[in-house]
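EI: anyone free to look at a 225-residue chain?
SC: sure, send it
EI:
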Amino acid sequence: MSVYMLLGRKREMSQIFKADGTIVPVTILEVGPCTVGQIKTEENDGYFAVQLGFGDIKLSSVRKPQKGHWKKAGAEPRRRAHEVRLEKASELKAGDVLKVSDVFKEGEFVDVSGKSKGRGFQGGIKRHGFKSGPRGHGTKNMREPGSVGTNTAIAHVLKGKRMPGHLGTNKVTVRNLQVARVDDKLNLLYVSGAVPGYNGADIVVRKAKAKLFAKADRALRKSSK
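SC: here you go
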């Protein structure tokens, strides 16, 4: 299988028990089924790629261009679409459906990307880890940021200055999470560890990049001997 990632959503955190009774904290992810919406080739598009769709959506909420796009693929419109770059041509066809067991196996390592939880407007202490001021009697700068720039030489706040502001909703990737269990019937993937986002948040799961590079490096060294 040339595809190395799938779309999904975060379900919840839980725990499973090994045969020896060891408890493993896991995050349950609903991964797939993903529908292939388009196949891109080097001849037509200049590169190889596969467009994957995930999630149900009401037809009344789908715009006409998207309806025509998915109709051409011979599939129902999907709520999300994501393009996966490939190194070579894929054997997949538009309209094919990929399940979680088609890409991921138990014991493998994966990288999970998602948006962190939104925390709203926060001060410098929570947002950047600043130290607080003195907390003695009469102190008025316990949580104030302090000086933010110079006086007359520049007379403005320098770009990039760490200040209070919106915290969260950033793309976060957690790497090298081990797959503890794969449930093909319910399209669930159990990974050991925490995953960014709230329950129900959209995520992208891909085979661990560091592990793939390490495997390729070992194969290269073995062939050079």
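EI: The chain has two domains: 5-121+170-224, 122-167.
SC: 👍
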